[in-house]
Amino acid sequence: MLRQFMMLFAGTFFISLFVLMMQFLWRYVDELIGKGLSMEVLAQFFWYMGLMLVPQAFPLAILLASLITLGNLGESSELTAIKASGISLLKSLRGLIIVSCLIAVCSFIFQNNVGPMANVQLRQLLLSMKQKSPELEIPEEIFYGGIPNCNLYVQHKDLDKGMLYGVMIYRMTGSFEDAAIILADSGRLQSTADKQHLKLSLYSGEWFENMRSQELQGNASVPYRRESFMSKVIILDFDNGFNLAEASGISQMAAAQSLPQLIQRIDSIHAVGDSVGQRVAADIRTAVFQTPKISRADSLRALDLAKRGKVNYDSLFAKLSVERQRDILQRANSRIEMEKMDTEFRSMAAQDYNQREREYKIEILNKFVLSLTCIIFFFIGASLGAIIRKGGLGVPVIISVLVFIVFYILDNTGYRMARQGSWTIAFGKGLALAVLVPLATFVTYKANKDSVVFNMDAYRLFFIRLFGLRQKRSIVSKEVIITDPDYQRDAERLAAISDMARQYSEEHHLVRLPNPINVFFRYQPDNVIEQIVAELESVIEDLGNTRDRYVLSYLNQYPVISEKAHTRLFNRQWLNVASAIVLPLGIILYIRMCRFRLRLYRDLKQVRSINDNMIGRIAEMKP
User: Fold this and answer.
1) Which residues of 140-164 are buried (b: 16+ CB within 10 A; e: fewer)?
2) pTM beyond 0.85, yes or no
3) Is a pLDDT exceeding 60 seen at residue 272?
């Protein structure tokens, strides 16, 4: 079992990794196409992308491998043989459980050591790819400053033709005094052959250039020049070769940190936050209690007098002149605006620290969640494989995809809500585990008890009984009959059943509404119907050994009679009482029971009619 699981795990791991890489690649396909990247750069991109996605591929591979392994064993009846020998399911899975735990540990170690390095390298490559071939990265209706000494504005781009429309360029060669403004209806931006410059071809525009810093000959009265052109080519300095971007900013990301580094950075954020908080508190105390002319003690004394009603600031303010009042109000308003701006700036800084701390804590929990998911997915996959007992790549792949989609949606939703602060971090990252752990416990318990939780026939029978649907008999002629029916005795039994059915219908008045008190609170078993049904089924079973096609036809016409649906709603008395208390539900169930009483009346009438036909056919048969 362990050998088969490891072989399947190796195969499903690379399949899962390939699927995840294709999904990740689809998000960044625009960064790769048309950039002229070398094979070496592409190989590094795919290598680091694969390393980054390895921890996510582990749970999916374990889920799929365990499903196929246990499904194959169940389909070939090997799992049945193991249980028949006295070995329980959990005992037979001990080796696989140990291997899954080892894989979870390897996943955590991989995330803590290799994952941060892979994230830094991959983000560095992506940033470098964005900076390559800037003509593809120029946004519309936004000034683009990716070209040295130049700000470029484009109103519209046509990537198919490689054209830029509504071009505006602010170009500075030395200082602001040498700034030039270039307007053009359209243009084209291309790289030169040496990859060191950009060739900007402009069409139908004007060139405005400031010339204050230049030495003008004579007495020039115009400090700038204006030029109109139909076409013009400008060469811009730009290294278009592939150069790795600076990784200092990328290394500060939460995904680029190991567990000790994350804990250290959280402590640093707490230390900085405490110092900033103390500084803010000191500034607030200074702003409230101290002014350039009034000491803190005097300010407190004035506040105390004002509280006692001995000082009325409104009356003092009213005695001042209008100019003095206006000056005081302006200074107070200016001070309030400064304090407001300062508070907003400090709030933004505090939010930034809080956001970084949340990201670090989320990354810490993410390392543990992905590792625990390997173990949870194993129990889900192994249990479902033992229950469903379908091997191959059909049903296991479908179930694996469904389970992984549920996990991905819950985990991604919890991550986003926790990152933006709408949910707590523990709740956001624990949402997926809170759903999957009970599911794994439930399916493991059912698989260990050989439950028929996925038996479609059991669910079909339940809904048939719930909605009162008809069941049809299907009695066919047997090829080998050991004992022939006792026709004469069966005819006598059918006659007795008809008498019992007639007498029951006359005494119980099935077409009338039953007493609700008896239905919900005073249930009494209907032994007569149980006896009629048991006797009828016994006769049908005996006559099922017949070779006569007329008798078989009559047997298939017998209705399947429900023994208790016309007398009680549930088998347990407390459920009947509870349904009576919940009035809408009780009324619906009472109407359902009345419907079964009418059905029983028609079924008994049909039984008597078929019994007469059956007795007549038996009388015609030759002894």
Assistant:
1) eeeeeeebeebebbbeebeeeeebb
2) no
3) yes
